[in-house]
Amino acid sequence: MSTAHPTSFARSRWEFSAVSVLFGVVLVALGVFAFAMPVVSTIAATVTIGACMAVAGIAGLIAVLRERGRPGMAWSLLWAVAALGLGVLLVVWPVSGALSLTLFLAAAFIVRGVFAVALAFSRRRVFRSWGWVALGGAVTLVLGLLVLFNWPASGVLTLGLLVAVDLVFYGAALIVAALTAPRLAA
Fold this sequence. Notes:
- By secondary structure, the chain is mostly helical.
- It has one domain.
- Helices cover 82% and strands 0% of the residues.
- The chain contains 6 helices and no strands.
- It is globular and about 50 Å long.
- 23% of the residues are buried.
C-alpha cells in the first residue's frame, strides 16, 4: 500500500509532462539545427560513434588484462584492439569515417531490404499483411541504393540527416505524449 498523497502523484506527473515537453522541444530544435547543417551533424555523429568505440575498446582491454589465461582471450583482445583502433580512426579522421560508415549503412540497408522482400514473398500464403513487409523492404532497399549510388557525396550528409530525422520525430513524439497524457484531478 502506498503512502504517497494523491496530489503529490498528480504534481509529479505534471512535472514529468513538463519535463517531457521541454526535452521534446530541445530535441526538435537540435533536429532543425541538424537539418540546417547536415555536414556538421554527420561529423558530430561520426566523432561520437568513434569515441564510443574507443571507450568500448579500452574497457575491453581492461577486461582482457583482468582475465588473463581464460579461454577465448585472444579473440577478446583482438576485438578490443580493433574497437579501440577503429574508434580512434573515426575521431581523428571523421570525414573519412563518415564516408566509411555511410557505405556500411548503405550495404546494411540493401541487405536488409532484400531479406525483408524475400521473407515477405516466402510467407505470403500464411502472412496476410506480407505486402507491407515487402513494401518496407523495398523502401529500405531503394534507400540503400540511393545512398550507395550517390556516394561519396551522400557520405557527408546521410548520417547527419538521419540524426536530424530521429531528433525531430522523437522530440515531437515526446511533446505529443506529454500533452495528451491523461490528467489526474488534484
